[in-house]
Design brief:
disordered C terminus; alpha+beta; 3-stranded antiparallel beta sheet; globular; 5-stranded mixed beta sheet; disordered N terminus
Amino acid sequence: MDTAGAERHTSLMSNKDARRLPVVSHGAEFLAIGYLMRRNILAYKAPPNNEGYDLICIHPDPRQATNQLRIQVKSRYQTDCDRAFPVKEKTFDAFDYLLVVFQNIGFFSKNKRPVLEGYRQPEIYCFPNTWIRQHHKIFESGWQKVHTKGLEAEIEEYKNEPCLSGCVPSSQSAHAFPLCLQGGWHQVFRVLARNRIGME
């Protein structure tokens, strides 16, 4: 991006009226799809405004498995956000995994730091349903959220490539998502988090 382009971008993103960014928000689902398909998982968007899940994942080989996984996607675009995301308790039975995308497109807090100084690479966390249930909180105001701030060490195993590496068919990997798709639910959550085997 050239200097003029960066200035226009900064001006736009600093405008209070631009705090709702439907294009950026919508892009989080496609980013999640890209990560999943890179790991050889066929991922499709659910119908718009579908309650409880946003993506449907299937095994690429129907001879191996015909089950499906339902993925709920959440996102935050601010690099300096509070690292929390909303999740409704009533959706717990609707998804198998929740992928939260921290898009990190810039600083937007009130300390007036230049927006683009906060531009970072996106982070994706793949949380099993059980983890979301354990860390879900309902506040007096009625808001329902999951906070990850202060849990960086605990959630590192769910971050980016390591959390999805079990999806890669290889002679050494534990095949976490394929196991899910084949019905091996009892061990998948544990395997997904711990397996760090990459593509061979």
